[in-house]
Amino acid sequence: MRVVDVPIDKIYVPSAKAKTLDEEKVMPLAEDILENGQQSPIYVRLGKDRYVLQEGLHRVEAMKLLGSKTIEGHIVQAKKH
Known about the structure:
By secondary structure, this protein is α/β, with parallel strands linked by helices.
């Protein structure tokens, strides 16, 4: 799977996923990313004119806190029912 730079302002976070945010994890994660870089890419799927977050909410919030415009991510296929 290829890693691509995903524009943070084009990432949509579904409300169910947004509810899982633990604010206390964001600052320590941001500090770790600042020191060591982003260790694991997030997972997104393509939506209409945006990316839909599948995995990596805390990493996205940490990168926002650091002022980054992009985040490394894998683009995955939507689940077929």
